[in-house]
UniProtKB/TrEMBL annotation:
The lineage of its organism: Eukaryota, Viridiplantae, Streptophyta, Embryophyta, Tracheophyta. Residues 63-154 form the Purple acid phosphatase N-terminal domain. Its cofactor is Zn(2+); Fe cation. This is Purple acid phosphatase. The gene is LOC113713582. The keyword Signal applies. It comes from Coffea arabica. SUPFAM superfamilies: Metallo-dependent phosphatases (SSF56300), Purple acid phosphatase, N-terminal domain (SSF49363). GO terms for molecular function: acid phosphatase activity; metal ion binding. Residues 165-363 form the Calcineurin-like phosphoesterase domain.
Length: 472
């Protein structure tokens, strides 16, 4: 009897040890991955001004720097923007559905701006409205012998199970690496249909007097994608261009003149924060570099905007901002903390699916965590798992001249699921109301390779306990 008891006790002891070891392994696995991939060293310099990607299109006053973005709240509008260098020329966009002979026209506006000793070309913005959903349109800008034609495809009608594929690019700049990032994105077989751009565009402000010629080169460089699919813009710190010492005290001047966004349809009072609906996603764009404290216009707009989101119509709630709230790199460490303190509880309460940010020139993906219980005196200041929290993804790895952020805080915090100092882009592929797939593609790999990926289960529909729809 005594032997049996000893044996039983012994079994219990070993079971306990085994369980403990097992839990330790699980805990270790959940601590996240710092990639062992070592990126080949490459000094990041801007492409020279005579690079082919900066070439001015031929012809007198030819439209250049053509780019489009969504022009209304639901995807039936497109803002077409372009610049003419010599004279205003025409403000008109001609457009027609592919395989149709009926040509429509829309009239836009033209503006210019000065920045220190630079005077811009004639910047045209024209909103094309009432388009058919899910339709390919050709469009033409310019006049006389120097017209140029492009095309875009409108999204499907907004609805909960509409598949759609977004590309993610941030902090692109105009280096050789930037060029690789755009090429890699364009060749990706996942075929991103719209770019969610998380801020820091041209890096012109890294030049003396913020040489705005580098805004023009950036516009010509990105035209090969941005003229054919909408880029949804977010303002970063390199868009501020605040430089009173050279007589430029107005923040965001070049950016807001060059890149129009549809902020009025979402009842925003500023182009720096706004929202759109596209396919099955509701996308909220925030400004990390505008007032966001309580009672500010952005705060008031954001909190009321959340209450307008209809997850039955657009299950996927995506937030874009430039400065990440969760960042375990040494670069820009804690810079997003004040915004996190102000906004994280809203993101959790409204079950935001994913927050995309840039700013840190690397890649990082978080677990679903929150840090909203901390109240200064309760010592609960470590992020903990939270099924209502978004995944935070830093995708500021477009490849600009400031180089990679390589120094990471150690050890890797448990909230950080994966991090790697390489340039690349992301793909957010919505399958239906319950599932989306995110993948990250480093520039050094073949175009189809996913260096990191994760399935995301929609936060709203998960907690609604709806039957999951099969993932295609
Ligand atoms: Fe930045």
């Amino acid at each position: 009897m005594g032997f049996k008891l000893y044996s039983f006790a012994g079994f219990s002891f070993y079971l306990f040890v085994g369980l403990t070891l097992h839990l330790q392994v699980l805990e270790f696995c959940s601590a996240g991955t710092t990639s062992s991939y070592v990126r080949k060293y490459n000094y990041d310099i801007d492409m020279p001004l005579d690079s082919d990607v900066f070439r001015v299109p031929p012809g007198y006053n030819a439209p250049q720097q053509v780019h489009i973005t969504q022009g209304d709240s639901e995807g039936r509008g497109v803002i077409v923007s372009w610049i003419t260098a010599d004279e205003p020329g025409s403000n008109i966009v001609l457009y027609w559905p592919e395989n149709s002979k009926h040509i429509f026209r829309a009239d836009g506006i033209v503006l210019t701006y000065k920045y220190y000793n630079y005077t811009s070309g004639f910047i045209h913005h024209c909103t094309v409205e009432d388009l058919e959903y899910d339709t390919k349109y050709n469009y033409e800008v310019g006049i006389g012998n120097t017209t140029r034609q492009f095309w875009f495809v409108t999204p499907p009608k907004v609805g909960p199970d509409v598949p759609y594929t977004f590309g993610l690019i941030g902090d692109l700049g105009q280096t050789f690496d930037s060029n690789t990032t755009v090429a890699h994105y364009q060749l990706n077989p996942a075929k991103g249909q719209t770019v969610l751009y998380v801020g820091d565009l041209s890096y012109a402000d890294d030049y003396p007097y913020h040489n705005n010629i580098r805004w023009d080169t950036w516009g010509r460089f990105t035209e090969r994608s941005a003229a054919y699919q909408p880029w949804i813009w977010t303002a970063g710190n390199h868009e501020i261009d605040f430089s009173p010492n050279i007589g430029e005290p107005k923040p965001f001047k070049p950016y807001t003149h060059r890149y129009f966004v549809p902020y009025r349809p979402s009842d925003s009072t500023s182009p720096l924060w706004y929202s759109i609906k596209r396919a099955s996603a509701h996308i909220i764009v925030m400004s990390s570099y505008s007032g966001y404290g309580k009672y500010t216009p952005q705060y008031k707009w954001f909190t009321s905007e959340l209450s307008r989101v209809n997850r039955n119509e657009t299950p996927w709630l995506i937030v874009l901002m430039h400065c990440p709230m969760y960042n375990s790199y040494e670069t820009h460490y804690m810079e997003g903390e004040t915004m996190r303190v102000m906004y994280e509880k809203w993101l959790v309460e409204y079950k935001v699916d994913v927050v995309f940010a840039g700013h840190v020139h690397s890649y990082e993906r978080s677990e679903r965590v929150s840090n909203i219980r901390y109240n200064i005196v309760n010592k609960r200041c470590t992020p903990t798992k939270d099924e209502s929290a978004p995944v935070y993804i830093t995708i500021g790895d477009g490849g600009n001249l400031e180089g990679l952020a390589t120094k990471m805080t150690e050890p890797q915090p448990e909230y950080s699921a994966y991090r790697e100092a390489s340039f690349g882009h992301g793909i957010f592929d919505v399958k239906n109301r319950t599932h989306a797939h995110f993948s990250w593609h480093r520039n050094q790999d073949g175009v189809a390779i996913e260096a990191d990926s994760v399935w995301l289960h929609n936060r709203y529909w998960k907690t609604m306990a709806e039957p999951s729809i099969a993932v295609s």
